[in-house]
Amino acid sequence: MGASILIADDLSFMRMIQKEILTERGYTIAGEASDGLEAVEKYKALHPDLVLLDITMPNMNGLEAMRKIFSFDPRARVIMCSALGQQNLIVEAIKAGVKDFIVKPFKPERILSAIEKALRV
Amino acid sequence: MRKRYVSFALGEGRYCVPVEQVLQIMRLEGLIEIPKPPPFVLGVLNLRGDIIPVVSLRARLELPREKVARASPDPRKRRVVITRVNGKPYGLDVDEVREIVEIEDGAVSTDSTTVFGGRADFLVGIARHEDGLYLVLDLPRVLGTARDLPIVGPPA
Amino acid sequence: MSSPASGLAASADDPRLRRAFLEEADELSQKLGESLQALEADPSNMDTVNEVFRLTHSLKSESAFMGFARLSELAHRMEDVLGLVRSGSLSLGRPVMDAVFSGADRIAETMAALTKGGTDTQFENGAILQSLSAAAGRRAPRAGAAGPGAAGPAAGTAAAPTVAPHPAAPAAAVRTGTAPADPGTAAPGEALLQGLGDFERAQLAEARDRGEECLRVTVTVDDGEPMKFPRAWLVFAALESAANVVRTVPPLDGEPAEDAAYARMRFLLTTADPEEVVRVASGVDQIAAVKVERCRFDELLSAVIAGAPEAEAGAAESGGEAGSEASASAASAVATGAGGETADSRTPTPPEKTSIRVDTKKLDDLWSLIADLVLNKSRIAHLSENLGKGMDPEMAREELAEAFDDLDKISGGMQQAMMDTRMIPISVIFNKFPRLVRDLCRKLGKSVELSVSGEETEIDRSIVEALSDPLTHIIRNSLDHGIEFPEERVRRGKSEKGRVSVSARRQGGTIVIELSDDGRGIDVPGIRRKALGMGISGAESFTEAQLLDLVFLPGFSTKEVVTDLSGRGVGMDVVATRVRRDLKGDVALDTVPDRGTRVTLFLPLTLTIVNALLVRGGTQLYALPLTEVDSTAKLTSSELRGEGGRESAAWEEEEIPVFSLGVLFDTGRRRSDEYFALVLRHRDRRAFLVVDELIEEREVVIKPVDDLLNAERLFSGVSVLEDGRLVFILDTSFIRRENSDREAPWAPAS
Fold it and tell me: Engineering a disulfide at C707: which of B106, B145, C236, C653 sits with its beta carbon 3.0 to 4.6 angstroms away?
């Protein structure tokens, strides 16, 4: 489809995997970020169609980064990646407007299906 | 700036309080006595679970006896004005509730309060209006506790 | 918990991924070794601790992704241990360091094997895992772990040390969930459509009058979704964007139950666009099934009034499954096992224990108060010993008085601390509003900026649930009827974006919550017209405040009135009832035409309930907290000694003062041969209180008593009985006063 996606995760390995999965499906990687601050900056600069945020990142976690992004783009499409056991953070994220959440470790089909659905709206 | 006030009568005097402070006006019914009330508290009303002290403004303002006797109010017009001060409701026992008046801020003067026969410290001032003089009440003061105890005010 | 190895075989086999993983993980493993050595040299260096934690965390994530379960488990266990060290709950003693080192060694070995092309399955890590757990079990005496919301297994546990956390079950630590969450009991459709409360009914009626449809939506979460509770939330949020969700089963507010309870969610909602509802519900990923059925308003509403379960039959016109749910009996609640339910047919389990999350700082406060208590206790024991050895009784009495004072302070502190554990920040409610506002804006085509403040203000836990609905309703009202459409706003010279603000603050013993908007304001003359039209006497001279107060009257917010007022005020009577009757608070409206409206809620800080003894003095009822009543007694007039306000009598070899309600409250004393009395106790002092009649022991809800009614500070509160009579709760400290000390401050003016 060619939609542009911003990937944010502090683990370069995770970013690499996500990049692989997404580019194979035909999405464009708008950019990568390794912490929340960078994620917000790059979102502002690159205007991606969707952003994948890891919940735990240094300097600013995914939840905060998402709130900041919403403050200048209320229609932002955000998908949150989290580990098992971060239930409360995820619910906070949902209250704040996240489109979906993915629990790590995830199967490629999972992340693709979540992105596809999120892009439809 | 013009502000709106609810006015009421006590004896011959006309008093008023800002509209925002008035919650409700009702007849004095269902008054419940309380043990050893202060001289100006008539009792309380139980309104939907709220215990509302009813204050006799006459007593509280310490109006001189003669002024009161001459007026001879019509008991059918007696009302309780339920006010909210500092988030709490209080009832004021008045002889008659009258009109809503608009008073210019500048028209409220603090000099001539000595003319007033009762507790002048409970007044914000006296307002000149085409319909006459209105005594503007300082409700937070009026409803503060005993003379000698600190008055309950807004939070620090 | 989903098994990492399944379905990821593809990833582990992909040569590019494997290579990348090996490079990264190897580097991590090496750095781990180095950092651990640095840590051994300087165990107190928090930076190194954090580094080691981070490294094990990354190793865990990456190896899990690749499907190397054993490696991941090992790294995870190490991460947990390091997590405890990081938070200060575990000190880096020799046993812990040894365990961590052996863990790191095993990781290095595993990496070596993987690099050679093997797998991690050849490694038996049981012993190492054990030693890591054992090491973690030895905790520092301080209460441990982060506050609520932390992801680790120790989150939310009480201050007392517990057994080592089991890393494989992160959700296991505390919560056993609230009673209704058991998925196996209660025929499913019932809870949704029966027992609708005032709010829900008001919303249904309003929706019906607007011409909306009522739907029952059942959503089944994918089995493979590891976190069903947040998934259910996502569905709820999606539905809210297209409809008004009136009820959710199981409820999503409050403390979540175990995850499996949310596998199947039922929603009762109203909407103007049912197709949109289906669309958004289907738009949520990880959902196995969505079922949408129509319900009939009149049946729902009448069933509530009649209390009959017929609503089930009517509402379940479509779908055989719904029909079988309706026929299940309510009380015995044996699950019907219909369709895709996870029900076993078993009888309802006894109500599950409810548990709550408490900020550990509050538990720490309580802990130190307990410590003080223990100190005080030994001080008194010491004192007792000294007395036995011939200590001067006067000195002893002083010391004892001091000890009692301390005890008083401590117990007061503990009461307060216990109450504090019941307090949670109002942000739990406020946090929903940004999304709500955004969704409503989109739905209605309006533009609104929301500002929230004072969300850290704490309120009693028990109020939270009751408060959430009214506040949400008020915001909806604001957006529905208060804020104008952008074009209209611009035409009126206002900013295109409307403003809604929500704030909370504490004012003495009251919580004040304000919700305001800069919209149309309420048409006050319109209310007056309506009031007159309805024949409300005196309406022509009502003040604005009075007219606005009418909006809270049941029967006033009818459909007819509503259209005139542009819908504002609907459901406000329910808000008023909820706030005034249930929360013992108050609510007020302010408005300025064209400028906006503000709703203010006043809520008491807590509801205090006390066991008390009711007595009569004259025509008035009084209550004494049972904790301050030692005994009841009969006094004969011959036992009284002294006179004129200084009477006393003997009690248990002590001469104590005699008070009477008649004298205290100027209702006169009866002369009699015999008197009913209570023996009151305040700290170390006791006294008789003569009363006219002893009535009964009962629980009373204490409301604060206004200073105006309590000049002599004889009352600690007032209570209203069911029949409307007032009971004044006495503050027993008065027994310390000499009768003559009490002089009315209301000395006459002249």
Answer: B145
